[in-house]
Specification:
single chain; Hypothetical Protein Pfu-838710-001; 9 strands; CYTH domain-containing protein; NeuTTM/CthTTM-like; CYTH_domain
């Protein structure tokens, strides 16, 4: 079984992506029956992903490349559980790659960083531009953000920036 081990943080200083090239992504959620079914378009590539429930930092994840045309139809017509747009940047730090997502549309102003780890006990670097860790806060999961299409409390975002 494929397992994703990931930690998620708010970004306190979004200037970390200045000068970097990012990839625009649209993604939506087709179904949730205890396992989320997500479609994503990243650049000119389509993906279908199944994600199991989180257990700490870990969860089952199965990801498959699909034809772009199929992903476009799924995203446009079948995302009953919401969708979102963002630009993803890869920011390398001490041998780790942080995926920094700058959200657009109704989620504009939210910037998060995710890092995938080999095991849960790996301690990644914590550069100064990272804010609060939100790994366990479901309000910051992409599926919840897509569903509500609203930022969590502005006070929480301000706390993360401080």
């Amino acid at each position: 079984m494929a397992t994703e081990i990931e930690r998620k943080f708010l970004v306190a200083d979004a200037s970390v992506v200045q000068g970097l090239s990012g990839v625009r992504m649209g993604q939506g959620y087709i179904a949730d029956n205890g396992m989320w079914v997500r479609v994503r378009i990243a650049g000119d590539t389509g993906w279908l992903t199944l994600k199991g429930p989180s257990k700490g930092m870990s969860r089952a994840e199965f990801e498959y490349q699909i034809p772009l045309e199929d992903a476009q139809v799924l995203l446009a017509e079948h995302c009953a559980h919401g969708s979102l747009c963002k630009v993803r940047y890869i920011v390398p730090v001490d041998g780790f790659d942080f995926e920094v997502d700058v959200f657009e549309g109704p989620l504009a102003g939210l910037v998060t960083a995710e890092i995938e780890l080999d095991t849960e006990d790996v301690q990644p670097p914590h550069p100064a531009w990272l804010g609060a860790e939100v790994t366990q806060d479901l309000r910051y999961s992409n599926s919840q953000l897509a569903k509500t299409r609203a930022l969590p409390s502005p006070a929480l975002l301000a706390d993360a920036a401080g």
